[in-house]
Write a structure and sequence with these properties.
Layout: H1 3-12, H2 17-20, E1 23-26, H3 38-48, H4 52-61, H5 63-67, H6 73-84, H7 90-103, H8 109-120, E2 124-129, H9 133-142, E3 151-154, H10 155-158, H11 165-175, E4 182-186, H12 189-196, E5 201-204, H13 208-215
Parallel strand pairs: 1-2, 1-4, 2-3, 4-5
Helix pairs in contact: 3-7, 6-7
Length: 217
């Protein structure tokens, strides 16, 4: 079923979504945690000494290799700086890494409560996220958030990132639930389309309150 039709079908049967699926996969950024704030992005750009608009472009242009652990934090930030024609000190790189990590740890308690509700109801729940090692290890050492899931697939650990098939396949294997019995929530349409190719049903996560109104048990 084409993605648009899949999403429409999901919307039309919204009241039965939770009972219709045995497994749930959650994206991290923009779903379980809030996106970086404008203040965060401005502080990062200022610390890097790069104009705000150019910084955002370079931040994402270089991100995939960092998320897949193909480059270190130092290599990632050095690459961003070089593309902008600036040079960063080791101290600036350390500060950028820490600020960037913290900016992606603004947890949405409502969503984490729902994760726990789903598990209490006997559902299998996983997190599937593109994230760099620095953020993933911070989540493990500074919080106990990842313990709320039956399985967690992080791009830097499997060297694959959404929408690459290997990322979803790893998550499905760990979740132990057939693809057609899994509902995936992600804010990026290309990630939902990648999931659909493996038979996973998806909903684009744009407005948290509307999504929960439609699917929460």
């Amino acid at each position: 079923m084409p993605f648009a039709k899949c999403a429409a079908a999901a919307n039309s049967s919204s009241m039965a979504l939770v009972s219709s699926y045995q497994g749930f996969i959650f994206d991290y950024g923009g779903v379980l945690v809030r996106h970086q704030t404008e203040e965060d992005r401005t502080r990062l750009a200022e610390l890097a000494g790069i104009p705000r608009s150019l910084f955002s472009e370079l931040y994402w242009a270089n991100r995939m290799a960092y998320d897949k652990d193909l480059v270190s934090a130092a290599e990632y930030w050095t690459g961003v700086a070089q593309d902008a024609g600036v040079k960063l000190s080791a101290d600036a790189i350390a500060q950028l890494t820490e600020l960037d990590t913290k900016s992606w740890m603004q947890f949405d308690s409502v969503m984490w409560d729902w994760v726990n509700e789903l598990r209490a109801a006997g559902k299998r729940v996983a997190m599937l996220s593109n994230m760099p090692r620095d953020l993933g290890e911070a989540l493990k050492t500074r919080t106990n958030r990842l313990a709320d899931f039956d399985h967690v697939t992080l791009s830097y650990e499997v060297r694959a990132a959404k929408p690459e098939p290997a990322a979803y396949e790893n998550c499905l294997e760990g979740l132990g639930t057939p693809a057609d019995q899994v509902l995936f929530l992600d804010d990026r349409i290309e990630n939902l389309q990648g999931a659909e190719l493996l038979g996973i049903r998806g909903i684009q996560f744009i407005d948290r309150d509307q999504i929960l109104l439609r699917v929460r048990s």
